[in-house]
Amino acid sequence: xxxxxxxxxxxxxxxxxxxxxxxxxxxxxxxxxxxxxxxxxxxxxxxxxxxxxxxxxxxxxxxxxxxxxxxxxxxxxxxxxxxxxxxxxxxxxxxxxxxxxxxxxxxxxxxxxxxxxxxxxxxxxxxxxxxxxxxxxxxxxxxxxxxxxxxxxxxxxxxxxxxxxxxxxxxxxxxxxxxxxxxxxxxxxxxxxxxxxxxxxxxxxxxxxxxxxxxxxxxxxxxxxxxxxxxxxxxxxxxxxxxxxxxxxxxxxxxxxxxxxxxxxxxxxxxxxxx
Length: 275
Ligand SMILES: [Zn+2]
Description:
By secondary structure, this protein is α/β, with parallel strands linked by helices. It has a domain at about 10-160 and about 230-250: Creatininase (Rossmann fold, 3-Layer(aba) Sandwich), CATH 3.40.50. It contains 7 helices and 4 strands. A 4-stranded parallel sheet has the order 2-1-3-4, with helices on both faces. α1 (about 55-75) crosses α7 (about 225-245), α2 (about 105-120) runs parallel beside α3 (about 135-150) and α4 crosses α7. The longest helix has 21 residues, at about 225-245. The chain starts with about 35 loop residues before the first strand and ends in a 30-residue tail after the last helix. The site of zinc ion has 6 residues, from α1.
């Protein structure tokens, strides 16, 4: 039976039992999962992120967003757990670049559906935290179908509204905060600027290579760890707020609570044209 995130008996009614940390779910024993936590599943990718960021950037960001959000929810008394990341995504648009390993939209959709059906036998609520835009269609399709099967499944995007699109200031800053040893700032080059909406037609037609020879959309040269920490904090609070208070829209997305104000995604001093 479905109990929507805002419904009676919903997640806010669950309280944290004494037990293992939410982030170590894979090391729980089966009896420890019997209480039916809200399960948060990060969804990432393994794809090129320019000459300076690692292939697993989206997975690192998805895990960080899910884990930090879970810590906030746990501190507020919610009973949550973070599952291991879905580390392969739909990355066909990056396939012209070495290192990209894509399982495509259809397979990712099927993987997410089967995850939902499986966990639905022992817990009542599942939230996907997606950090790769190219996964969006698969996540939406899977969540819609699972909800049509009367399951309490939804998703959130671990991203910054208005931020640059790929391997630019936003992702590079977050990686400088989360895993600096994997970031090669000496190789960072300015990529193609402009709004992703304007690039999308050419990107869909010819992939990322058609709009950016380096694979970078945005400008990573302005990145810094301090801003990365700020951006990670914004995302964690946004994800936690949506899980705690959000409503589910037609695409299965948890919407931001109305009281939330969205902070500026760009730090001072970043030229508008570099987004
Ligand atoms: Zn990325």
